[in-house]
Structure formats: C-alpha cells, structure tokens
Amino acid sequence: MSRTVPPAQTVETRLKACAEDVAEKLNKFLTDEPRGAEQYRPQKLLDAMRHGVLNGGKRIRPFLMIETARMLGYEHPGVLRAACALECVHSYSLIHDDLPAMDDDELRRGKPTVHVAFDEATAILAGDSLLTLAFDIMADEKTHYRAEVRTELIRGLAQNAGIGGMAGGQCLDIEGEGRNRTEGEIRQMEQMKTGALLRFACEAGAMLAEANAKERAAVARFGTCIGLAFQLADDLLDVTATSEQLGKTAGKDAKAEKATLVSLHGIDATRDELNQLIAEAESVLTVFGSKADILSATARFIATRKS
Length: 307
Prior knowledge:
By secondary structure, this protein is mainly alpha-helical. It is built from 15 helices and two strands.
C-alpha cells in the first residue's frame, strides 16, 4: 500500500509547535499561585523546578503521546495535560540523573544542571516535586472525563517510571559501571531506563483515545521499537557528537566505563540495528494507513537526530 510520507520539516515543525505548547502549559502549572486555599509553594523550589523543566528540549515523549492520540482520532485539551505530566516525570529523572551521586553532570541542554544552578538538596526536592506533580495532573478530571481512563494512566505512569521501569533501569545502569555486562543485561537496562517512558508515551495516547485491543497492540509494539531506537541513537551520539552539539557532556558512557550496545557491537552494527528498528516501527503502523504518517516520520527523525 502506497503511503504519502510528509517531509522531515513537517515533523520538525509539529515537534517545535508541540514543545512550545508543552512549555506554555508547564509554565502555568509552575506559577507561584497556590493550587489550593491552604497551600504555600516555596519560591526557590518553584524556580528550581522551572529551571529543570523549562530549559528547552525536544519534548519527544509528549509529542508521541499527542500524535498517537491524534492518529486514533482523539484531540482534547486533556491530552496536553497528560503529556505535561509525562514530561514532568522525564524532567525529574534528568535532574536526578545529573546529581553527583548519579551521572555527575554540570551541563543539560546547554545550561547548568539544577544542582549547579541551585544546590544538591534543592535539586533533589525539585525532582521529587515534579514527580508528584505529574500524578496530581493525571488524577485531575480535566485530563480525562472518565475516572477509569485516569486510573489506567496513573497506574501505567507509575509502573513505567518506577522499579520495573525507568528508576529500575537507572539502578541497573549504575550497577553495570566498570564491569562487563552481557548483551541481555544491556538490553534489559536500556528497555527499562529509556524505553519504558517512550513506550508508555505511545500507549498513553491509545489509553486517552480508548483504542481497541488491536490498535493498542500495534501502538505498544511501535513504542517498544522507538524506545530502543532512541537509546541506540543516544549511544551513537555519545561517541560521535561533541558536547556543543549534544548540549550535554559527550563521551560520558566511556568515561564511566558503561557497557552499551555500541561498545559491544561497534558503530556500524549498531546503526544497522537502529535502521532495522525504524523499519519495523514503520511497518507496524501500516494498519493505520496515512493517519500514521507523522508518527512514521517521527521514527525516522529519532534515528537521524543530531542531538
């Protein structure tokens, strides 16, 4: 079946517009106005949260959620709210990843990391606050009118962000520093640390749209492919790009003696697998016809990005 694929600029334009929408909405969530009659929110903590979540970025995860829901015929202001909740979790993870006890990085998206701009204690609390804010947003009826959908979103986010997902993957990543790991161990870690939230972004779009089982299965497989592809692209960039290009410190994996699929198989073999994953991601979307053009092009964008 022949499909019309939009040019890369179309995806980049939509991605930029989505990033602006997400930033604007997050800014509203993080004003100094109390959310309840008796709530007081410390200004320093708000400033640190804003520094960590309003510092640019592509907003790939919100974009995947919004575009998946749109592909499935669901467009509602609540989708942007759910996408912001997911971005809060992602941003919290970056703030904590950058801490001296974790990856110990001083640069994120070309700017000082939160613990550098403020202090370690405030950075920890900013991450904690963004994580809990995410569930506050997801639980609000403005996110979806059906409580069953909100419950599914909350549970999915918790599972993919927690011990069996992103946080667990980060633990495996730290444990793997300085020792040889099997290919299976590396793939398990990357599926959890990076892949879990990217897959959930797609699955959440289907949850919001109340998609059927067949649609959900296709979206979930697409998300799995995209999750690993994103990590492979990241690993390749870590060894081929400069810190200026990345907006963060390049070569961190080698310096920390982290085993990656690039270090295990080499650059060429990793690029081959990346291309195979993108081909599979596009293939599973064919059931949606031309409605999937943007997501299909997004898969290619993820594979060819420069930062």
